[in-house]
């Protein structure tokens, strides 16, 4: 089987610093030696190997781009590379790290108080504390501004009530970032979107309940829950003070979408490596399957799509570090790289023939996972509308 380096035709890895290359190799080794040997077991169990979380923290998978609180302040490219290596293992593994870092840790970093940052971020960096991010609701996915969860004033504090859906890590999290519409602030008038604030909710508070979603046919190596909030008591200090409407959670989502754009490249590379190994040893009509023109055309198409996706992700990393990345650029990257990875996974499954449905191979697992990745953090249709608005100046969401 060809190594990931052998597939790097355009030598994107040359853009990594020595420090970033060491980190890349450390994460790759962890995925290869610690995660992949157990992935099928956890897929069958519809579970995540939570015992590996401290190791993920130790090798630097959490909070890589944060500067301070024990975090290294690495480049956006380094963070993307971590996501690529994790998703080479499984989308569920990268999802867990994305929820921890891009969503929960970034929400606290961007919008929390100094006390909140000092309390949570050092522990989350090591994996000794886990976070989740509660925005999506049963009736409000692509339209988060329609959320029904409310935070009602109760003396100096708040009472939080509502339902959240598809919340990664929620049942094993120590703290939940919950987004809610505020009520009962005397003398303050806000629009529905502006009234959305973020709250830091320790998950041992009374009224907080996370229930695993057990009937998933995709993203099975991830713990995904529905969350019920029944008058969860919060103090004034549990409000993320710098949150200011829907813009705040969407800022975090753009960080997660950036990680997805890199992560799915790893999934696609894993599929292509698997397919290349198979066609190199499989004989059909007395010839290696790799020797047929149709086979080589499919392999070349897969590799071309991976290179194109890597070029988009690489340029976006540069723009992020220059402070010039836009939401439209992130939308293009997320939707186009996922599209590419889905085509690669389906093509490689076809190349594997009958054995492609067996868990001896990774392709079917990646192919099914990418159905979830294509949906969360904004569907393809939503991101196309973002790009349409960028091109025409016309809002077409409703």
Question: Can you put this structure into words, describing what you see?
Answer:
- The protein has eleven helices and eleven strands.
- With 398 residues, the protein is of the alpha+beta class.
- It folds into three domains: 127 residues, Acyl-CoA dehydrogenase/oxidase, N-terminal domain (Butyryl-Coa Dehydrogenase, subunit A, domain 1, Orthogonal Bundle), CATH 1.10.540.10; 111 residues, Butyryl-CoA Dehydrogenase, subunit A, domain 2 (Beta Barrel), CATH 2.40.110; 145 residues, Butyryl-CoA Dehydrogenase, subunit A, domain 3, CATH 1.20.140.10.
- The strands form three sheets. Strands 3, 4, 5, 6, 7, 8 and 9 form a seven-stranded mixed β-sheet that branches. A two-stranded antiparallel ribbon has the order 1-2.
- Helix 4 crosses helix 7, helix 5 packs antiparallel against helix 6 and helix 7 packs parallel to helix 9.
- The chain is globular.
- The relative contact order is 0.12.
């Amino acid at each position: 089987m060809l190594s990931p380096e052998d597939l790097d035709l355009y030598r994107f890895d040359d853009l990594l610093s020595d420090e970033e290359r060491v980190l890349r190799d450390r994460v790759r080794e962890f995925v290869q030696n610690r995660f992949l040997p157990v992935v099928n077991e956890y897929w069958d169990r519809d579970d995540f190997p939570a015992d590996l979380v401290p190791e993920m923290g130790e090798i630097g998978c959490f909070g890589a781009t944060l500067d301070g609180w024990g975090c290294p302040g690495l480049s956006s490219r380094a963070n993307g590379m971590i996501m690529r290596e994790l998703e080479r293992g499984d989308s569920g593994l990268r999802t867990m790290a994305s929820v921890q870092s891009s969503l929960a840790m970034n929400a606290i970093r961007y919008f929390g108080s100094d006390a909140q940052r000092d309390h949570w971020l050092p522990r989350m960096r090591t994996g000794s504390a886990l976070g989740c991010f509660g925005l999506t609701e049963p009736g409000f996915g692509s339209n988060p501004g329609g959320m029904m969860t409310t935070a009602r004033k109760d003396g100096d504090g708040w009472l939080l009530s509502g339902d959240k859906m598809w919340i990664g890590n929620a049942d094993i999290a120590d703290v939940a970032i919950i987004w809610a519409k505020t009520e009962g602030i005397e003398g303050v008038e806000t629009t529905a979107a502006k009234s959305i604030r973020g709250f830091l909710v320790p998950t041992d508070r009374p009224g907080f309940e996370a229930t695993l979603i057990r009937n998933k046919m995709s993203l099975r190596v991830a713990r995904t829950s529905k969350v019920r909030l029944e008058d969860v008591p919060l103090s004034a200090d549990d409000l993320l003070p710098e949150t200011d409407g829907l813009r705040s959670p969407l800022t975090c989502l753009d960080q997660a979408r950036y990680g997805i754009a890199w992560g799915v490249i790893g999934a696609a590379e894993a599929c292509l490596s698997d397919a290349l190994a198979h066609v190199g040893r499989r004989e059909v009509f007395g010839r290696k399957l790799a020797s047929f023109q149709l086979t080589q055309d499919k392999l070349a198409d897969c590799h071309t799509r991976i290179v194109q996706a890597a070029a988009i992700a690489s340029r976006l990393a540069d723009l992020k570090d220059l402070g010039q990345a836009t939401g439209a650029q992130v939308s293009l990257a997320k939707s186009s790289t996922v599209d590419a990875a889905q085509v690669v996974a389906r093509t490689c499954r076809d190349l594997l023939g009958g054995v492609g449905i067996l868990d001896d191979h990774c392709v079917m697992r990646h192919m099914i996972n990418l159905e979830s990745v294509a949906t969360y953090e904004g569907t393809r249709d939503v991101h196309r509308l973002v790009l349409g608005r960028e091109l025409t100046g016309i809002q077409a969401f409703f």
